């Protein structure tokens, strides 16, 4: 599909990129299980991270900083780890420069990462890993990801912005249910996705269905929601015919479930929902400051890519401690949702930002104008390009044209409104901190 192509293009070339070499074999050859000897040697040879390693080995005379190092870092089997906070792995691997790009790619552009933004990617990386300047690395990696640049909207509006609903006290008691689509027909005959989201944990389920019919919603509620999570008190839906149908309403009444209707503009759930609910359920949500997975299971998920590194064993948590911790976490999340709703309201009242300005020669992406937004929005890249700015006609209108190297017999030159434009960034090796300043 189109997405796959764009995704492949956004990856950086790997060593041994011989097109005649079978892909499967190449993947096997590129897969490493890193040994502790190898990691330790790379850490010590890497000037950006060797200092704490040497200090912990007692190879540096006391200079007053040692205590700080001892607080933050720890040596396990000769490998350097940095201590994590409550949401992170207890001992996070201190990553040598040469492995950083691979980790960033694992945490950003794989299907279970879903091309999330800077904040979520940073959180995902720092859950298991640390290096000086980590947030800078993530920032430049994500900013230069061409898939993201072409597919993300300029501003993302938080879901639920206009309809603040008081957060529930229990998980899976208040559930929003939405249809996404229609999409291109799949081989199994499905055109829509039924997507319920739990209002407390933000846990998302996505189920492909053939139509928006009431019977399908009923079966779905029975098998995927009630059978797994119990009876919700209330569901929140739009006024789609499937939801308002007598068949469903009668069934809901029997189940004792209330149905609130809201009029939504279809939230731009940025199409990612179709790729991986796992990515959504395991990413930190801005509103709760935790991942749905963490709220539901009380622990962080583990991804296959983490299994290539050795991790020191952690103390087993007692059941009592676990329950106490999870209960406290869920209480805290309820409170955060209340605070966050207030902040969203405040932000809503603030003025819009000023339009950006571009110069002749700047490379830009241009937002696609959609003639049939309902049907095509989720399947096409939101931006096309890159183009270059040929002329500034006014503070709002720019003339853009195909880059000289991309010109064929027919090429484009057209006026675009400043709101349609955003700068196209290219990966810049200078952004990769090799000797950069340390950062907490
Ligand atoms: Zn991306």
Automatic annotation (TrEMBL):
Any matching Pfam family: rve
Xref: InterPro entries: Integrase_cat-core, Integrase_H2C2, Retrovirus_Pol_polyprotein, RNaseH-like_sf, RNaseH_sf
EC number, as in UniProt: 2.7.7.49
UniProt domain Integrase catalytic: residue ranges: 163-273
SUPFAM superfamilies: Ribonuclease H-like
Domain of life: Eukaryota
Coiled coil: none
Class of the enzyme per the UniProt entry, highest EC level: transferase
GO biological process: DNA integration
Membrane-spanning segments: none
GO molecular function, one term: RNA-directed DNA polymerase activity
Listed name of the protein: RNA-directed DNA polymerase
């Amino acid at each position: 599909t189109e997405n796959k192509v764009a995704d492949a293009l956004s990856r950086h070339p790997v060593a041994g990129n011989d097109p005649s070499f079978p892909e499967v074999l190449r993947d096997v050859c590129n897969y490493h299980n890193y040994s502790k000897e190898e990691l330790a040697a790379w850490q010590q040879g890497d000037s950006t991270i060797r200092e704490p390693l040497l200090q912990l080995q007692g190879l540096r005379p006391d200079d007053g900083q040692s205590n700080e190092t001892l607080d933050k870092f720890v040596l396990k089997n000769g490998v350097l780890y940095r201590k994590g906070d409550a949401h992170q792995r207890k001992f996070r691997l201190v990553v040598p420069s040469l492995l950083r790009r691979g980790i960033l790619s694992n945490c950003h552009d794989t299907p279970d990462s879903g091309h999330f933004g800077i904040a979520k990617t940073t959180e995902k990386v720092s859950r298991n890993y640390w290096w000086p300047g980590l947030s800078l690395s993530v920032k430049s990696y994500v900013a230069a990801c061409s898939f993201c640049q072409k597919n993300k909207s300029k501003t993302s509006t938080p879901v639920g912005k206009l309809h603040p609903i008081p957060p529930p006290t229990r998980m899976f008691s208040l559930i929003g249910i939405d249809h996404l689509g229609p999409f291109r027909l799949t081989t199994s005959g499905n055109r829509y996705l039924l997507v319920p989201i739990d209002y407390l944990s933000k846990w998302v389920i996505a189920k492909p269905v053939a139509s928006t019919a009431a019977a399908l919603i009923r079966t779905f509620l029975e098998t995927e929601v009630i059978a797994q999570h119990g009876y919700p008190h209330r569901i929140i839906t739009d006024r789609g015919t499937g939801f308002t149908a007598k068949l469903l309403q009668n069934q809901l009444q029997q189940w004792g479930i209330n149905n609130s209707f809201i009029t939504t503009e279809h939230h731009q759930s940025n199409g990612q929902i179709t790729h991986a609910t796992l990515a959504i359920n395991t990413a930190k949500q801005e509103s709760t400051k935790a991942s749905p997975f963490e709220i539901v299971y009380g622990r962080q998920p583990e991804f296959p890519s983490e299994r290539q590194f050795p991790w020191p064993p952690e103390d087993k948590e007692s059941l009592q401690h676990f329950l106490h911790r999870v209960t406290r976490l869920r209480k805290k999340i309820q409170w955060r949702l209340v605070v966050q709703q207030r902040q969203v309201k405040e932000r809503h009242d603030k003025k819009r930002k000023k339009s950006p300005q571009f110069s002749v020669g700047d490379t830009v992406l241009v937002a696609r104008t959609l003639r049939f937004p309902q049907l095509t929005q989720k399947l096409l890249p939101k931006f096309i390009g890159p183009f270059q700015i040929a002329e500034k006609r006014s503070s709002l209108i720019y003339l853009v044209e195909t880059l000289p190297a991309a010109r064929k017999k027919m090429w484009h030159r057209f006026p675009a409104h400043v709101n349609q434009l955003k700068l196209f960034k290219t990966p810049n090796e200078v952004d990769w901190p090799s000797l950069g300043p340390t950062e907490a």
